[in-house]
Amino acid sequence: MAARDEQWTERGPDAQGGGVQSVDRALQILEILARDGHAGVSEIAEEMGVHKSTVSRLIGSLVSREIVRQNSDRGKYQLGFGILRLASSIPGRLSLVHEARPVLESLADQYKETVNLAVLRSNYAVNVDQAMGPSTLATSDWVGSLTPLHATSSGKVMLAALPVEERSRILQKTGLPARTPRTITDRDTLEKQLLDVSRDGYAIVHEEFEIGLTAVAVPIYNHFGTVIGSVSISGPAFRFDPENTPGLIQGLKDAGLVISGKMGYTHR
Known about the structure:
Layout: H1 2-36, H2 41-48, H3 52-64, E1 68-71, E2 76-79, H4 81-87, H5 96-111, E3 114-121, E4 124-131, E5 146-147, H6 153-161, H7 164-174, H8 187-200, E6 203-206, E7 213-221, E8 227-236, H9 248-262
Antiparallel strand pairs: 1-2, 3-4, 3-8, 4-5, 6-7, 7-8
Helix pairs in contact: 1-3, 2-3, 5-9, 6-8
């Protein structure tokens, strides 16, 4: 009995190590399929540096649980619907405000201006969190404020991401009222600007919502790649010039991707 116990003790760590290695390899396979869309056993084995039989065994297990499925046309594998079942349980447990908070604070500290997190609600951009820069001029509390989509950087980012039909429905309902003399109130002009926003990945407004206020915003994505909000930096027009502040726009884009990653987005 003692000999058996000793034998089990010696084999236990090896078995455990093999199990951990199998899990790690299975996760590698999923990452490869998520990155490439589909791949064959030989391709996966070559990238991982393991024998094809090892990959076949692991894929077989993943297929049996519908985590991976085989593309019948090409004989290659891709992620299966089982992944969606697993992923669908995550977003409800993630709080955008909670996940974004450290990033907002970091941006406010780095650029010394006000940073806002906004989402689309009831045809308006609603600011749900804010981090204040150290400047004494950055005193406006925008949390809870409903701001017009057509006149704010956050709103334009979210408008640009909407299907044409949904965007038309919202704009027909809200109109394009002028908040300042610089507010865009012509639909065609706005649509052209939204094309630029989609292409460039950010929106800037110069005193369109409030005289003396400049703001720049980027989108935040969820695990489906859908825009679920925006993060913006705003400041007094006399000193805040995003386009001529080295690294600011790219830094804001990077921050948006960090928040998106926390919400399950995989940037390709």
